[in-house]
Known about the structure:
Structural class of chain B: alpha/beta
Distance between the termini of chain B: 34 Å
Distance between the termini of chain A: 32 Å
Shape of chain B: elongated
CATH topology of the largest domain in chain A: ATP Synthase, domain 1
Oligomer: heterodimer
CATH topology of chain B: Pyruvate Kinase, Chain: A, domain 1
Largest sheet of chain A: 8 strands, mixed
Number of domains of chain B: 1
CATH superfamily of the largest domain in chain A: F0F1 ATP synthase delta/epsilon subunit, N-terminal
Number of helices of chain A: 2
Mean pLDDT of chain A: 82
CATH superfamily of chain B: ATP synthase, F1 complex, gamma subunit
Helix content of chain B: 55-70%
Radius of gyration of chain A: 16 Å
Number of strands of chain B: 6
Low-confidence stretches of chain B: 195-200
CATH class of chain B: Alpha Beta
CATH class of the largest domain in chain A: Mainly Beta
Shape of chain A: elongated
Number of domains of chain A: 2
Number of helices of chain B: 5
Low-confidence stretches of chain A: none
Order of helices and strands of chain B: HEHEHEHEEEH
Amino acid sequence: MESKLKLEIVTPYGMVFNDDVEEINASGSEGEFGVLPGHTPFLAPLKIGMLTYKRGSETGHFFVNWGYAEVVPDKVIILADSAEKSEEIEVERALAAKKRAEERLKQAENVDHTRALASLERATTRIQVSEKRK
Amino acid sequence: MATLRDIKRRITAVKNTKQITKAMKMVAAAKLRKAQTRMLEMRAYADKMNSVIAGLSGESESLHPLLTVRSRKTVEVIVMTSDRGLCGAFNSNILKTAARFIAELKQEGFNVSLNVVGKKAFDYFKRRNVPMRKTWTGLSGKGIYSDVQKVAVDVIDNYINETIDEVFLIYNEFKTVMAQKVTTAKLLPVAPMETSGEKTEMPASFIYEPSREDILNQLLPKNIEVQVYRSILESQASEEAARMTAMENATQNADEMIGRLTLQYNKARQANITKELMDIVGGVEALK
C-alpha cells in the first residue's frame, strides 16, 4: 500500500502545485470528498471551493475555481480553471469583487444573475480560503 | 548620377528605417518571451486534459454528439492568422495552405464554410470575394480566454446544429524561434484518442461522480475550447518569432544598404573635389 499521494494542480496558467502529500480534501460538484493514498480510481468535477492537503504536520489550502479531479491510487490530478494558494490570494480584490457582486444582485434588472452569483461565490470562497493562511 | 544631396537623403531615410526595424525586433523579442511562457504553461494543461479525456472516452463508444462522426457535407475551416503584418511569411504561408486546402475540399464536392481568425486572413478572403461564415479580429495580441471561448462555443453550437459536419483548424505551430510549422488539425468530431505518452494505464473500475456522461458532457466542449485557445497561443508565439526574424533580417539589410550608399556618397564627394581641383588648376593655367 502506498503511503504517499502525488498531488498535481494544473491550470491554463501553469502548474500550481506538484508534490507528494498524505491526504487531500476537495469540494466536488456532488459534495466534499477526501482522498488518502490507495484510493479507488475516481473522476469528479470540482466546484468553486477549497482544496486542502496534509503533509506531516503541514496543512495547505488552495482556492480552486471549477475543474476536475482525477484520482488514481498514487496520484491526484486537479485540472482547474484557476487555482490559488491561500497565501497568494489578494484579499482586497476579493473583497471588492464581493461588494460588486452583491450590488449587482440587488438591482433586479439588467443583471446576469447566474454570473453575479458565481462571482459572489468565488469572492466569498476566496476570502474563506485566505483566512486559513498561517 | 545622383547628386550628393540625394544620396545623403537616402542614407538618412534608410537609417531611420533601420531604427524602426530594430525597435520592432526588440518589441517582438519581448512579446515572444511572454507568449512562449504562456504557451508552455498551456501545453501542460492541455496535455493533462487530453490524458483525462483519453481515459474517459477510450473504453466507450460514442456517448456524445461531439464524438459522433457524420457523413460530411459541409466542412468548416478555421484559418488562424495575425492581425498585424510585418512578420515575414507567417501569414502568407497559412493563407496559401488554407487556399489549397479549401480548393481540394471543393473539388471533392464538399461545401466549405470559412471561419476566419485575424485581420490578415479576413482581408485576404475579402479581396478574393470568398464568403466567410464568421470572422474574429483582435483575438491574438491579448490572448484572453473568454474571448477565445466564444470562437469555440460558436463552432460547437454549429456542429451540434449540424450546420457543419467537420471542423479543421489551420494554424502556425511553434517549433522553435526559427521554425514555425503550418499545421492542419482536425478539431471536430473528436477523434477517439489513444492514451499516448502519459503512462497512466486506466483501471477498468473508475468511479465517476456524478456520471460518466455528465462528465463527458462538460469535459468535451471544454477540451475544444482549450484546444482552440492553445492553437491561438501557439500562433501568437509563432507570429512574434516570425516577426523577430523578419525584423532582424530587415535590420541587416538596412545595414548593408547604408554601407553601399556611404561608399557611393564618398565616391561622389571625391569626384566633386577632383572636378573642382581641375577647375582651379585649369583656371591657373589659363591665366599664365
